[in-house]
Amino acid sequence: MKKLYISLFWKFLIAIILTVTLFGLLNINFVWRKVYNLIDLEISKRIIYIGKNLANQSLKYILYKDISSLQSILDETKRSDPIIEYCFITDSENNVLAHTFTQGFPKKLLGVNKLKLGDTLSIIKIYAENYQTKNINDVIIPVLDGKVGYVRLGINDDMAWINLKSTFITFIVIFLSFTLLGFLGAFIFSYLIAEPIKRIKMTAEKIDIENLKNIGEISNIKSSHDLIFSKFNIRDEIDDLSEKFNEMILRLNTTYQKLIATQSAMNQSEKLASIGTLVSGIAHETNNPLSGLQSCIRRIGEHPDNIAQNVKYIEKIGRAHV
Length: 322
What we know:
Elements: H1 8-63, H2 67-80, E1 84-91, E2 96-99, E3 122-127, E4 135-143, E5 149-156, H3 159-206, H4 224-229, H5 237-302, H6 307-319
Antiparallel strand pairs: 1-2, 1-5, 3-4, 4-5
């Protein structure tokens, strides 16, 4: 099965982008939870402080049944903090003495939140259909341990998000900016690593053992970051790889030139050996007839009176063989 080819550049780029994105999302989640919880905690502390302060202020007015003063305190308290949706005060029998509702008091609220024995306050989450904000934290605080009455506050539960919204949007903008910078850095970083390796690959494809005389044209590999940071005298493994590759090509060229010289010497030796063989053959072919002629002449010289023999040898000499 044919393998999917993905260049080193894209592998680096995708890996870095995924890393930056994952890191950013984890940071957003962490910051969201941490900051939201901190803001929610601060709001809870503020409301508890407001509720206890309201309980202390209303004590004497509850005892004196001064309803108008209680109403004034409640109205002032609601206006003082935008996270307060409503507030009201009841006596020890859970009868409403004063409230901030403009369209009548919702009696369902009376039984929603109750203090347990020994508790100094109670906070529960409720869903209110009659308010612009549906999610509300209902707080009940006893006045003189509940012997006089209770203070009730309705807190906008979404206020933590409202307070966090602008800060979180700013954080998102900063995150996106750094993410874009991270993507740009990933692109540059991937290019600085992949480009010299790509050049080495292209150079390796150009190498021809029969055309190494042009080695100077392809043996000058320079890494991209070497060109960028050369003024700072900074090196790394990519520079070492490029340098070693250039040295390898030069050694290959030197070895090839030696091989050509050796091959030329061997060809010359083979030519000389062939000439020697040829000369040896010619000498052999020449010496054999000459030896026969010498033998015939010697015998004729030894027996000049033997006419029959001499005629025979003279005929052999004419045929050039014994």
